[in-house]
Give the backbone structure.
Amino acid sequence: MTVYRPKGRNSGAALLVLPGGGFEVLALDLEGTEICDWAVQRGMTCAVLKYRVPQLWPTENGKQRRPKILLGLEDAQRAMGLLRQQAPSYGIDPHKIGVIGFSAGAYLAASMSNTDARTYPLADAADHQSPRPDFAIVAYTARMLDDSKGRNSLELKPWVTISPKAPPTLILHAMNDPMDAVRQPLAYALALSDAGVPVDIRIYATGGHAFGMRPTADPISREWPGQVQQWLQNLGLL
């Protein structure tokens, strides 16, 4: 975990960044340090997590399933506990620590949002802190939708759990994402809403997958950071 401090005003808010990479590699610049460059300029402490990869998702009866122990989730929960435990030294409000995840990292952000349980032995005081973020930003998420139910189904995979204690969530996606169909985030958003969790969605016609924060011809790549900033301001975090 690499921590970057805010430049100028410190809002007290912090952002844990979970890069994507299909649980095979990590896009540590496009979906990591470049996000922190943006966050610190807006008064946030930012931490990029280098979680463990690769981790193979096993196949059973021709279908992929979630590993019983997800290494990236363990690392993300540990990182959240450390940020809360060390909040005074970082100048962080321990109740204003959120997460942003991209693709595979977005799946981890959603998993963090919906569980308090850890699958590793508790080691110290940091592991007694809540691993659940105070807000979550989910960008082009994967591995949520049970697409075996038909094209128009919005049912979640059996391993996806939804908690009414999940934090306010902002979802970002492009309609023409060639890797993860827009029904992935829609299914997750509806499930959160059914549980009483506040959900905002920003869906653009174009943008594809893994657009990160680098400006392209697609409006989403240039506009989503401003959408996130406004959302954080609406929550009273900035």
User: Anything to note?
Assistant: The CA atoms of residues 54 and 206 lie 29 Å apart. Residues 219-234 form the longest helix (16 residues).
